[in-house]
Each structure stands twice: as structure tokens, then as C-alpha cells.
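Practice record 12: protein with beta-D-glucopyranose.
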Amino acid sequence: MVVLGIDIGGSGIKGAPVDLATGAFTSERVRIETPQPADVASVVKTVVAVAGSFPAADAIGITFPAVVLHGVTKTAANVDASWVDAPAEKLFSEALGRPVTVLNDADAAGVAELEYGAGRGVPGLVVMVTFGTGIGTALFNDGVLVPNTEFGHLQMSGLHLHGGDAEDYASDRIREAQELSWQDWAERVQTYLRHLHSLLWPDLIMIGGGVSKKADKWLHMVDVPTKVVPATLLNNAGIAGAALLAARNAKVI
Ligand code: BGC
């Protein structure tokens, strides 16, 4: 059985077949640059090219960096506006010639961390927070996903900060653009996570995105009144989580 995960990101569209017992890839990941502009037609074409690099799949899961409600993309914070209200699942299914599952990127990463990584076997309320171009979140209670939480868009103005979205204050994009030191950025992450904590009181916060690889540089400076750990699957999480959910939906596992 071949189950494929495909991760649509701002700069690259990546795919790999996944071993659902471990979350590991069964062959090397393929990455194609995200077309610019990343409109619906060009992204669908690129996803077909990524899928075409592998043997025909029994199930395909695709992540998308926006709200995905019952297969329809509803927002487009960091992607082309043509995705608002696009019937993504239908479009990808038609183009790939088989049913697919489309879900939010942070939700997919969280699903993988709960199954194979840092959240494995953790009871209670668990939040995954991914720091990248935006801030993505995934919320689980006793392992059950509450889809499409968008806590990256929490308004921080009440805290007399910069006003506006949390992701315009504490994402990794902002750290890079404003050339923040790890300490200055960690302070922002702490403010954000404390705010999130005061609203959710989670048992565990898992940190994902590229910065989780560099957690030793900054995570010790983040003090939040709950356990905060780096994700363990790193870049593989989105692909593995999408593949797992697609296999479940297609009832091939
Ligand atoms: C989007 C989320 C997404 C996150 C990470 C945010 O801007 O609204 O849906 O999960 O970025 O890509």
C-alpha cells in the first residue's frame, strides 16, 4: 500500500510516501518550488507533478496553510486570494484521479506529533504551535483534534504590543525580517504563549516549524506555566499527518 502526504507551503510543495507505522518516509521526499503567484490552477498543477514522482497512491493527504472546512479552503492569510472558498478537495481529487483529504497544515503536523512524536500518549489538552511564515495551531483533547483553530491570529493589541495579529508579532518570518536576537524573539514568543495559555490552560504545548530544530538556542528563555517541548518530527510532520488522516478517511488502514 502506498500512502502519500503532500505539504503545500509558501516556498515549496513537498511530498513523500509515508510508513504509517512509524511516520517515516519510505522514499526520498520530492520538493518543487511553489509557483508564484500561488493561484489555484498553478498549485493544483504542481501538486499533480509532485504526486506523479511516486507510484500510484492508495490514499493522498494534502496540507494547506489556511482554514480548510470540509474540503473547502476558507482563508488565505499567506497564500493567493484565489484560494478563498476554493473547493480544494474536489479540485485535487479531479486532478489526481482519486479521492484526497485536504487539511490545515498545523492540524496535520499536530496529528503526526500525537501519533508518532512529542505528543504520543499525552492525555488532556495538547496544543501544537508552528512558527513559520505565519503561526499555525492545532488543538487536541485526549488525542481528538478540534480542527481549524486559528490562534496565530489572536489579537495582541490588548497587551499594548504592536497591535494586530500574533503572527505579525511573533512568527519566525518577523524574527527574520526584524533581525531579532533569539532573546528578543523568545520574549515575544513567551508573551504570545502566556496569552494562549491563559485562554486554554493546556497540559502541553508542542513547538513546531523550522525553529523547533534550533530549540536549544531559545526555548530555555521561554517561561510559560505549562510544559513546552519542541516537536520531534520536524519537517516531516505535515506530510506524515496528512498521509495518516488520508489513509483513515480512505479506510485503507
Ligand atoms: C493561517 C493558518 C496556518 C498558519 C501556518 C496562518 O496564517 O491562517 O491557517 O495554519 O498560518 O501556515
